[in-house]
Write a structure and sequence with these properties.
Strand content of chain A: over 45%
Structural class of chain A: mainly beta
Order of helices and strands of chain A: EEEEEEEEEEEE
Oligomer: heterodimer
Radius of gyration of chain B: 14 Å
Strand content of chain B: over 45%
Helix content of chain B: under 10%
Largest interface: A-B, 23 and 27 residues
Helix content of chain A: under 10%
Structural class of chain B: mainly beta
Shape of chain A: globular
Distance between the termini of chain A: 41 Å
Radius of gyration of chain A: 13 Å
Shape of chain B: globular
Amino acid sequence: GNSVTQMEGPVTLSEEAFLTINCTYTATGYPSLFWYVQYPGEGLQLLLKATKADDKGSNKGFEATYRKETTSFHLEKGSVQVSDSAVYFCALSEGDKIIFGKGTRLHILP
Amino acid sequence: DAMVIQNPRYQVTQFGKPVTLSCSQTLNHNVMYWYQQKSSQAPKLLFHYYDKDFNNEADTPDNFQSRRPNTSFCFLDIRSPGLGDAAMYLCATSRDRASGPYNEQFFGPGTRLTVL
């Protein structure tokens, strides 16, 4: 079946550091890919999405590119802020459902 | 603003005492989902509605039931909560696939359930 694998956390960085959170997927067909973010005590929010190969999703300085050849959708940000501290979930669509990765907790130190 | 609303945000119940969590949406989406999320884990899909069609996940315990009386509202009923049912319960909505390729899900803020 379809699945998502993302890097284990927690990831701890200093403010203004470069961020990469790796995500790879296994899927039949061509799913849409997503990054969701969950701030403490809240529900999930869609951060960015890509619906086909080579699409780049971007939002709030975060970017991810749908790489069919490497089945990857890595999340990047050039300069993180303390307010980016949260849990990040990589996900893919499967029909009307979404398959989530296990999540990566990100801590940004001032 | 169009949104997904969950009430209450925090719910405390006693072991074995039935509890109902509610979700409403102003997005007019025809698909609604209930997830269970335990600490430091990914959300786990319990079931979803495609309009009024109920779709149960194979590993969802019988203790969990759901109702969707209309497009806007969906309820999660836990008939006899156990200590292991303490978790965050998330409601989400989406358009169906026929509406476009995205089918992104929009989440409510969640209800944190404590079982004493």
